[in-house]
């Protein structure tokens, strides 16, 4: 079997949510597809996918965006994993993270879901939390705003100035994780930015 990686960008479907903080994971897989000149196609696992390669002769990448809402992402992810024969250690879940400052990326494998319902549902559907994650920092709201409202709002004007760089950096982190492993990707992307 070829070296296949399933890279899932979590988010909510439809134009209403496309530019919200909760959908930053989908922006990252959009970036990965754009780098390869690919467009997403419907898949029977209730998702949109791109089948491509990290590079010619490199690992196969299946980029995916579930068509389900964030909190029930697990079904499509488990369906795609079964369809492509991918084990959890080759499923990279890209998602927003409240507990990481905006413009920061952290990578990990396994552990808790940190209150992220999308990650919780994926872990439940896969029957394990042991899959790599690229966590894209969106920060917490200031003041008393409910975090569940904050994640469903579009990025603010100041954030949008650097959002493209953040998304590109997260896409780089996914590529490095697949190519060189989690530790190498952590060493590069956890370092303070110059």
Could you explain how this protein is built, in words?
With 194 residues, this protein is an alpha/beta fold. It has a single domain (4-189), classed as Peptidyl-tRNA hydrolase (Rossmann fold), CATH 3.40.50. The protein is 36% helix and 21% strand. The chain is built from six helices and seven strands. The protein has helices spanning 24-35, 74-84, 117-126, 147-150, 157-180, 182-189; strands at 4-9, 41-43, 47-53, 60-66, 91-97, 105-109, 132-137. The protein has a seven-stranded mixed sheet, with helices on both faces. Strand 3 (47-53) and strand 4 (60-66) form a beta hairpin. It is globular.
Strand-helix topology:
Blueprint: E1 4-9, H1 24-35, E2 41-43, E3 47-53, E4 60-66, H2 74-84, E5 91-97, E6 105-109, H3 117-126, E7 132-137, H4 147-150, H5 157-180, H6 182-189
Parallel strand pairs: 1-4, 1-5, 5-7
Antiparallel strand pairs: 2-3, 3-4, 6-7
Helix pairs in contact: 1-5, 2-3, 5-6
